[in-house]
Amino acid sequence: MSDIVEKGQESESTYVRFGEIVRNLRMKAGLTQTQLSKALAEYGLDMRQNTITKLEKGARPTTLKECIALAQALGMQPAELFQQAFPATAVHSNELQRLLAKEAQLDRELDEVESQVSKTSEKLETLRLAHSKLVEQIWHVRREIMQLEGSANGDD
User: How many whole angstroms from its chain centre is CA 106?
Assistant: First the structure.
């Protein structure tokens, strides 16, 4: 029987097997549950030791974000963890790896664009200030011209 159940239904045996694999990988890495919890925090995931216990016992489902952080904290690529946990998905691992690489590339591109937007915004603000000063100077010069023209015409 496949561990991947159709239409979003989840199998408890999937949780149990995933938990066993996480426990084995954690132990292979020489980490305690507390150490794994601290390692996960470095990847932006707040998962306490008691939550890791539940996960390893198969008593708790795991989100995709958690799976990715677990893989990273255990020193592996997310696709490797998925391959071990869900052999039926191994045929999709190349696609998953490709998508994860594409996501990383797009994140880098987004960071670069955001940096350029920030720099452009700073330049735009500098140009606005320069424009405002020039408009003010022109207004003063035109006022002086009008005063000179008025005095030349005897409007004093």
Answer: 10
Mean pLDDT (the chain, rounded): 85
* Number of Cβ atoms within 10 Å of the Cβ of 126: 10
Q: What is the pTM of this model?
A: 0.51
Distance (Å, rounded) from C-alpha 10 to C-alpha 15?
Answer: 8
CB neighbourhood size of 138 (10 A): 10
**10 Å Cβ neighbour count for 37?**
19
Residue pair 17/58 in contact by the 8 Å Cβ criterion: yes
Per residue in 117-139, pLDDT tens?
989 999 999 999 999 999 999 99
Please compute the mean of the pLDDT values over residues 68-73 and round it to a whole number: 93
Q: Given the structure tokens 């020193």, which residue do they identify?
A: 75
Q: How many CA atoms lie within 13 A of 59 on its CB side?
A: 6
Read off the amino acid at residue 139.
W
